[in-house]
Amino acid sequence: MRLSELSQGADAVVQEVENVMDGDPIARRLRDYGFVRGEPVRLVGRGPIGADPLLVQIGFTRFALRRAEAARVIVESVP
Amino acid sequence: MIESVVSLRLALVGNPNCGKTALFNQLTGGRQKVANYAGVTVERKEGRFSGPSGRTFQLIDLPGAYSLEAASPDEVITRDVCLGHFPGETAPDAIVCVADATNLRLHLRFVLEVRRLGRPMVLALNMMDAARKRGIDIDVAKLEAALGIPVVETVAVRRGGAAALAARLDGELPPAVLVDASSDLHAEVRAMLADAVSMPRRTAEIDDALDRFVLHPLLGLGVLAVIMFLIFQAVFSWAEPLMEGIEAAVGMIGTWVGSGLASMPMLQSLVVDGIFAGVGGVLVFLPQILILFLFILALEESGYLPRAAFLLDRLMLKAGLTGRSFIPLLSSFACAIPGIMATRSIQDPRDRLTTILIAPLMTCSARLPVYALLIAAFIPNQKVAGMFNLQGIVLFTLYVAGIVSALAVAWVIKLIRRDKSEHALLMELPSYRIPHPRDIAIGLWERANIFLKRVGGIILSLTIILWFLSTFPGAPEGATEPAINYSFAGMLGRWLHVLFEPIGFNWQISIALVPGLAAREVAVSSLATVYALSGHEEGLQAIVAAQWSMATAFSLLAWYVFAPMCLSTLATVRRETNSWRQVWIMAGYLFALAYIASFLTYQITRAFSA
Ligand SMILES: Nc1nc2c(ncn2[C@@H]2O[C@H](COP(=O)(O)OP(=O)(O)OP(=O)(O)O)[C@@H](O)[C@H]2O)c(=O)[nH]1
Ligand SMILES: [Mg+2]
């Protein structure tokens, strides 16, 4: 499942970040931010308009990611 | 004094918002801008400090970066300096890596990436005060052993909080550690954290609680609207007594000095009609500008701004912008120049250019005097619905008009580009911080200084030049009109008047627009001078209220929403975009919008008030 599909407040573990094109700079940045295999993430909140962007907790940091950005992150949800 | 020789060149490198600039200021006694969001520093800055032994160090402050694979123009600067590719300089002798002790999962990865450069290095573990408060326990000795570089705890915002770092840098630095360049940095970070750091919670409890409220889909937008609205209310209602005080003082001194010069009418006119009327006319707006900055400074330090960007991102995206444009645009309310510089932190070049092009539509503080003058002259000072100040509401509306037009312009740019590709947001939200009253006081003091320097420098000089142009040549023998009508400025005003008559500007306004090109406040001081020379004795506000029609006043307000003329902004755009074309595009579209808006405002107001 994708990070963008998590429900609010849900926890998950990152599987990988997909490139949507060759050398995808956004995917590379996400990996630098710590979206790498085995890292716990949580969907903390959503923006007020169209539930976009998403507020994501990774490591000890919170990032605002647009849906298309979050959709690059494949996660496995944690019950 | 002997110029001391720099013994070592050091560069501060680290993730955004970890406190590099705060450390820089602490060590060098500098006053560079510190604020609580990623991307405050966008330039390379240097300073000096001496260690306990008296050795002198050169310290370079750099923009924050998430990686040396730069993704935005500010990160390019950091990368180039680190690698020694920055024009005109070699790589620094040693790197002072800075990491936020409360955010080590992210920051240590970058430390490890920088360590691969193979330069002598020290790690400053900053924000130790915040880490202790949150019960984060860091075993510095273990971390030092794992990293192979000296680690020093710092609290950059406390006096003496960087003394240990200065002492460590003054000692012998160990040679660079050679590391395997293909290792998995994330795995290394995890191992170090597991070994040396214990953390009761991954985030600060207070941040979670505040975010639930501030970023709530409904409440959040409400909070944002209330904050913005309060600022404008305060600018009008708090400033009034102070402004009256300044006005009275300037008036008194002017009369007193003027009476001393009674024997020299020419000089008396220069001093009273030129300097005191003109400069005093601008000086009274100091309190309003400071109140605006009080709020901006407090918001910048609180960590709220990236949250506002989060709330508005979708809206801005629809208009062809990004949430990341929010902070540069907000800075433009102070002045478009730092706002345009701040766009360096925007990754996408198209988003950056759009943000630059619309930055002048954010009402900069130099326009505040013009608004304030006209509002005070034409809008009654009364309460609406028992609590809101009507003048504050009108001011708010003018700012909103600027914002709405900016969004519209961005939207048109998007249409012209037919751009459907993806633009990145990827924005970090920092921890909340309570602003220190002392820092805000220093910030305000600096603002007051900048404003007073402008008043004493460019505004004063332009006012004096305008006085000369409005006084010479004098009236011919047997003239019937006031002397200014025969002067150079009078002639120029009449020519320009042809262009500006359809939008309701009289010749006095037409003259005032010209020096307003160099500094917008000068439009106000020029009006004051021109009217004083035309034989008016009252204060500018009273003159304007008596002499101008409502339609003219509103038209000038509309003009200043777009106010296309600020030479220093255009010069900054040239530098930041490296293109004259963008400069012409910007100046052209702003002029067209200003003219159209003023024309409509004038004609409509006239139709209604007739
Ligand atoms: N509590 C605490 N706050 C700090 C400390 N050092 C810096 N800060 C705060 O952290 C925020 C960021 O500080 P800056 O010095 O602007 O950070 P920077 O690393 O220069 O940021 P960029 O220029 O954006 O890369 C500001 O709100 C500072 O007041 C510290 O030691 N303790
Ligand atoms: Mg900085």
The fold-level CATH name of chain A is: SH3 type barrels
Instruction: Round the mean pLDDT of chain B to the nearest integer and report it.
Output: 88
The helicity of chain B comes to 55-70%
Assembly annotation: heterodimer
Give the helix tally of chain B: 26
Number of helices of chain A: 2
CATH class of chain A: Mainly Beta
Task: Please describe the topology of this protein.
The complex is a heterodimer of chains A (79) and B (610).
Chain A: E1 11-17, H1 25-33, E2 40-49, E3 52-58, E4 61-65, H2 67-70, E5 73-77
Antiparallel strand pairs in A: 1-2, 1-5, 2-3, 3-4
Chain B: E1 6-14, H1 20-28, E2 45-50, E3 56-61, H2 73-83, E4 94-100, H3 104-115, E5 121-126, H4 128-133, E6 137-138, H5 140-147, E7 151-153, H6 163-170, H7 185-196, E8 197-198, H8 205-214, H9 219-237, H10 239-260, H11 265-283, H12 286-302, H13 305-318, H14 326-331, H15 336-342, H16 349-358, H17 368-378, E9 383-384, E10 388-389, H18 390-417, E11 427-429, H19 437-471, H20 488-500, H21 507-513, H22 522-533, H23 540-547, H24 550-562, H25 567-577, H26 580-609
Parallel strand pairs in B: 1-3, 1-4, 4-5, 5-7
Antiparallel strand pairs in B: 2-3, 6-8, 9-10
Helix pairs in contact in B: 3-7, 9-12, 9-18, 10-11, 10-12, 11-19, 11-22, 12-19, 15-25, 16-18, 17-18, 17-23, 17-24, 18-24, 19-22, 20-21, 21-22, 24-26, 25-26
The complex binds guanosine-5'-triphosphate and magnesium ion (MG).
How is this structure best described in words?
The complex is a heterodimer of chains A (79) and B (610). Chain A has helices at residues 25-33, 67-70, and strands spanning 11-17, 40-49, 52-58, 61-65, 73-77. With 79 residues, chain A is of the alpha+beta class. The longest helix of chain A is centred in the middle third of the chain and has 9 residues, at 25-33. Chain B has helices at residues 20-28, 73-83, 104-115, 128-133, 140-147, 163-170, 185-196, 205-214, 219-237, 239-260, 265-283, 286-302, 305-318, 326-331, 336-342, 349-358, 368-378, 390-417, 437-471, 488-500, 507-513, 522-533, 540-547, 550-562, 567-577, 580-609; strands spanning 6-14, 45-50, 56-61, 94-100, 121-126, 137-138, 151-153, 197-198, 383-384, 388-389, 427-429. Chain B is elongated, with a radius of gyration of 27 Å. The longest helix of chain B has 35 residues, at 437-471. By secondary structure, chain B is α/β, with parallel strands linked by helices. The model of chain B has no long low-confidence stretch (mean pLDDT 88). Chain B folds into two domains: 6-202, Rossmann fold; 222-417 and 445-609, no CATH class. The chains are: A alpha+beta (79), B alpha/beta (610). The A-B interface holds A 25-26, 28-30, 32-34, 36, 39, 44-53, 55, 57-66, 68-69 and B 66-67, 69, 71, 102-106, 109-110, 186, 199, 202-203, 207-208, 211-212, 215-218, 220-221, 306, 309-311, 313-315, 317, 323, 347, 422, 424-429. Strand 4 (61-65) of chain A pairs antiparallel with strand 11 (427-429) of chain B.
